[in-house]
Structure prediction request, 255 residues.
Amino acid sequence: MMSVDLNSDLGEGYGSYRIGDDDGMLALVTSANVACGFHAGDPEIMARTFAAARGRGVAVGAHPGYPDLWGFGRRRIPYRADEIERIVAYQVGAAQALARYAGHPITYVKPHGALANVACREADVADAIARAVRAVDPDLSLLAIARTEQVRAGERCGLRVYQEVFADRGYDDEGLLIERGLPGALLEDAEEAARRAVAMVGEGAILCASGRRLRTPIHSLCVHGDTPHAVDLARRVRAGLERAGIALSSFGAGA
Prediction:
């Protein structure tokens, strides 16, 4: 039977501020990418999210980004590659510590926001992220945006690499995410997004906004946890996959 992981970015509040419905998402996803404190999250939220994921049997990973609480990690900050390497290592280490504290160790790393988008195109940034992961723990996997420099960097570093596509984002003809703020970047219709997500997994291809299809391995589907309709979209995606006979399981299961 074909299977796929369903992941979401969680733990993205800060202090008394909450973003998204983490409990609702944890009831639906098979992997949770937990913010590490630089773009969102803090020790209390991290520990609580890891513990909640453990209770649901949901795999957990570190979700490092630029140090940018004001911009939610979605603004590029001009760090050098060696600085990015240490920024990522710092966050992965923090995630490892809080996850072990919660009794549910992380198994992978997924870059966040602008850092992830830059690493899709720029090999030096992608390599810096992969080197940081390997240095902290070479047994961690890399959850990489499909068909990008992230994938190639992880492979160069000898990491286990799993490729993801996004259920709630539009793609250009290069197979890259349409920049936020541009038409088609965010898919607002949950039913349409779910149908497209199931089609991508079934076909093994990215469906671009133009209709172009780009073949790729797909190990995981992402639904962002910070959008107003995130839980509804995740529910519809999960139901659609199950109707299509596609099983849901974390991408590292049995690795």
